[in-house]
Specification:
The protein is an all-alpha fold. Helix content is 64%, strand content 2%. It contains 23 helices and 4 strands. The strands form 2 sheets. A two-stranded antiparallel sheet has the order 1-4. Strands 2-3 form a two-stranded antiparallel ribbon. Helix 7 packs across helix 16. The longest helix is centred in the first third of the chain and has 29 residues. The radius of gyration is 23 Å and the shape is globular. The two termini are 27 Å apart.
Length: 550
């Protein structure tokens, strides 16, 4: 059975959901490039850290960065565009997960470093990617049972933890980049503060277009000022090749060893929690219903991208929380913006000179923009927790204790580096790992398994031939009542469609004005009822309806 929920446009006709809207090419390019700039540092930092730890040569390091960007582009297109039942078809950027950094370094050093270590890492990455892909194809009932581990109290906590853990990354960039000679220089903070202030001013002006590209303008403006003051260096652009092609198994045939594989499988379990949280978060932000099938499609894209990453000399992939914050800030909800970003990333992966230009953004400028976005990620988690009854002591304990566990690696790093086995430390020395694990375990102890996933917006079951894409809400912000996880344990129950719809109708009749976001959301549910009643057998299939208009 397929589910249908229609949207109500101003002329009373059914309209395309903002997620599926194909924007004009100039806007697609502009918004897509903004996504690339916003996530670029996070995308390249993993190969830089791992490459340096394994003592790779500068040329090998550049190759890793290009391979990463190239695979990021392909993975993001798979996730946002969708191939059959692979990809969430939401504006989710795919990037290399930070969770895998410590385990990969441990694996690589254990293998002796250099390119020989990369071969062991890639064997584990390919295996873990295939396992993740296979897991997401479990029968619907079995998969829904697994997803009951992630009610709003868990996903909200994980998203909040992601934001909190990422904020120090942005602040380190704002200070000049951890390990740089001028780390902590007030000049770097001046660039970060100026960039942040510029972004906030653009947001305050309230102009929709300026607000939607505020991050991009902040990065460009900050870099321009730094260049005029002599602090933005573009010398590496001239030293870079014009074209760099990524070829499969560039460093040799992968090696498959059991301990690295087990370690990477555990990493992928954590990334599945991250992707689950990010999928619910972005669905909430764009007003799109997220159920277990949507999450399964997102995880299949994760698994496919990770296996592909091992083949194309890259690393494990996850839906990037940074860009969820960007969607929240800009309110640009079209998934085809992410497709455009994927195209840009592929180009950057093929053109080292182009990548070198983007890499010239000073750390201070990047840190100012990143800190804003990472704060918005944490806010998305807090908003998800707003759907949870935190007056219940058990839910409050789950959130509070999980946040405490998440802060342990950053607060007491010596516990992991000096008093723990190296293999175990490589797994547990991560705020995301500890925070997510604590949230899942504590929720099982206090609440047990959540109820089966319940659609956020009331929908009508229709025969398969009358199927259309399930849509919720008007694309309102995360504050909308159409939260993706309503009805799960710790969350609120969905409201019946009829009463809210009547409320929205009365409001429009009395005021004659445009309905508020909340009213529009519930009105759409009522339209879904009307569409269900009149739908014929010629309605398009859900996958076909999700494709852009030709």
């Amino acid at each position: 059975m397929a589910r249908v929920a229609a949207r109500l446009s101003e002329n009373g006709q059914q309209s395309t959901h903002p997620v599926d809207e194909v924007l004009p090419l100039p806007k697609l390019a502009l918004y897509g490039f903004q996504h690339v700039l916003a996530f670029y540092a996070g995308a390249v930092i993993v190969p830089i850290i791992v490459g340096n730890a394994l003592k790779l040569s500068p040329e090998q390091l550049v190759y890793l960065i290009n391979a990463d960007l190239f695979t990021c582009g392909i993975a993001s297109i798979i996730q946002a565009w969708g191939i059959g039942r692979i990809g969430a078809r939401l504006p989710l950027i795919q990037g290399v997960t930070f969770t895998a950094v410590s385990p990969m370094i441990a694996i690589g050093l254990g293998a002796g470093g250099g390119t020989a270590a990369l071969l062991v890492i890639y064997g584990a990455v390919i295996t873990a990617g295939i396992a993740t892909f296979a897991f997401a194809w479990l029968p619907a009932k079995a998969f829904r049972t697994v997803m009951r581990l992630f009610p709003p109290v868990v996903t909200g906590t994980v998203i909040t933890v992601l934001g909190i853990v990422l904020i120090p990354v942005g602040l380190n960039d704002a200070a000049g980049g951890l390990g740089s000679p001028d780390f902590g220089d007030p000049k770097n903070f001046a660039y970060a503060g100026g960039t942040m202030l510029f972004i906030l001013v653009l947001m305050k002006l309230g102009k929709p277009f300026l607000s939607s590209i505020s991050i991009l303008l902040g990065l460009v403006g900050g870099t321009a000022v730094a260049f005029l003051l002599g602090d933005a260096k573009f010398g590496n652009v001239g030293n870079s090749d014009w074209v760099g092609i990524t070829t499969p198994f560039h460093f040799g045939v992968p090696k498959f060893e059991w301990f690295p594989i087990v370690l990477m499988l555990i990493v992928m379990l954590i990334t599945m929690v991250e992707t689950t949280g990010d999928t619910y978060a972005v669905g909430d932000i764009v007003g799109k219903d997220v159920d277990s099938e949507t999450v399964a499609r997102a995880l299949r894209a994760d698994g496919a991208a990770t296996a592909l990453g091992g083949v194309l000399n890259s690393f494990p992939y996850v839906a990037f929380a940074e860009n969820v914050g960007l969607v929240r800030m800009t309110k640009v909800k079209s998934r085809f913006v992410v497709v455009a970003a994927g195209v840009f990333m592929i180009i950057l992966g093929l053109l080292p000179k182009a990548a070198a230009i983007v890499a010239a953004v000073p750390h201070g400028v990047l840190g100012g923009a990143a800190t804003v976005m990472f704060g918005m990620v944490a806010l998305a988690g807090i908003q998800t927790l707003g759907k949870v009854d935190l007056k219940e002591e058990k839910n409050a304990l789950i959130v509070g204790v999980s946040l405490a566990f998440a802060l342990l690696p950053a607060t007491v790093p010596v516990f992991f580096t000096k008093h723990m086995d190296a293999d175990l430390s490589s797994l547990l020395n991560s705020g995301v790992t500890l925070g997510a694990t604590a949230a899942i375990v504590l929720n099982l102890i206090f609440n047990g398994l959540a109820k089966d996933d319940v659609p956020a917006v009331p929908v009508i079951e229709l025969p398969a031939q009358a199927a259309a894409p399930a849509e919720s809400g008007s694309g309102s912000d995360a504050e909308s009542e159409s939260g993706s996880a309503s009805g799960s344990a710790g969350g609120s129950e969905p409201k019946p469609a009829a009463e809210p719809a009547a409320t929205a109708a009365d409001a429009e009749a009395k005021t004659g004005a445009k309905a508020t976001d909340d009213a529009e959301t519930v009105a759409e549910a009522a339209v879904g009822v009307a569409v269900a009643a009149t739908a014929g057998s010629d309605e398009p299939d859900a996958d076909e309806a999700a494709k852009p208009a030709s």
